[in-house]
Amino acid sequence: MVRFTGGVELFEERRKLIGQILIEQVKKFFISDADRDFYAKIFPGSVDPESLKRIRKMETADIDAVFALEQTVYKYPWTRGILVDCMVVPGYFCWVCENEHDVFGYAILAIGIDEAHIMNLCVSPDAQGGGWGARLLDQIIAIAREKKIVDTLLLEVRKTNKPAIALYKKYGFKKIGERKAYYPSEHGREDAVMYALPVS
Ligand SMILES: CC(C)(COP(=O)(O)OP(=O)(O)OC[C@H]1O[C@@H](n2cnc3c(N)ncnc32)[C@H](O)[C@@H]1OP(=O)(O)O)[C@@H](O)C(=O)NCCC(=O)NCCS
């Protein structure tokens, strides 16, 4: 049996805290994403903002936010037109990560016969290091595995992009080649390194 010390006020506070903890536990089990959104709108502060972060399919309404992020993150960003094409061309799969207010990451995968290609994987600078790049990559790999026509997941990355290369290596991607002078850069052109991961 729990012995409460410290008088009626402290007892009340503990009772409230225990109540809140119990409610949190129940919420974790029973509240869907839609419910979380509802609670967050109606009772701001009642829902942990971390629990509102999620990955979902990119929609056309996300294009402006994704394009803004693309321009923030990359020195040589894609055009808006490329992003729009990715959304409409068959075989392309696009996802975003979002929090309560903003899109803070995205990934684009092109699926063909035998091979799938990671076209883009990007997390906003202030969200980097929080595991969302890895979660987006999990999503990409899961879809590539689900499509039985794909044997290999491919990508190119700038030779100097250490965080991205570390991420791909962590997931077991192996270097399969280089493309000389593939990317524009401040010092002329930069090589791309090609990586592959078997997924069949
Ligand atoms: C590459 C990128 C998507 C990683 O996303 P992220 O959310 O920051 O990465 P995560 O927090 O999920 O980290 C997962 C793994 O990536 C690697 N990694 C991420 N950031 C790293 C860094 N700054 N230095 C070294 N390794 C890093 C680590 O292996 C890490 O695993 P660990 O936490 O167990 O060490 C992100 O840095 C980014 O958007 N960069 C700019 C856009 C870009 O270059 N995209 C790749 C194009 S090919």
- In whole angstroms, the N-to-C terminal distance is 55 Å
Q: What are the bound molecules?
A: coenzyme A
Shape: elongated
Largest sheet: 7 strands, mixed
What is the typical, i.e. mean, pLDDT? Answer: 88
Output the structural class.
alpha+beta
- Uncertain spans: none
Question: SSE string, helix = H, strand = E?
Answer: HHEHHEEEHEHEE
Oligomeric composition of the shown chains: single chain
**CATH topology grouping:** Aminopeptidase
DSSP strand content: 25-35%
| CATH architecture call | 3-Layer(aba) Sandwich
Summed up, the domain count is 1
Q: What's the total count of β strands? A: 7
Please bin the fraction of helical residues.
Answer: 25-40%
Number of helices: 6
The strand line-up of the biggest sheet is 1-2-3-4-5-7-6
Describe the fold and architecture:
The protein has 200 residues and is α+β, with helices and mostly antiparallel strands. It has a single domain, classed as Gcn5-related N-acetyltransferase (GNAT) (Aminopeptidase), CATH 3.40.630.30. The chain is built from 6 helices and 7 strands; from the N terminus they run H-H-E-H-H-E-E-E-H-E-H-E-E. The protein has helices spanning 7-30, 33-42, 63-73, 80-88, 132-146, 162-170, and strands at 54-57, 92-98, 103-111, 114-123, 150-158, 174-185, 188-198. The protein has a 7-stranded mixed β-sheet, with helices on both faces. Helix 5 links the parallel strand 4 (114-123) and strand 5. The longest helix has 24 residues, at 7-30. The radius of gyration is 22 Å and the shape is elongated. 20% of the residues are buried. The model has no long low-confidence stretch (mean pLDDT 88). Bound molecules: coenzyme A.
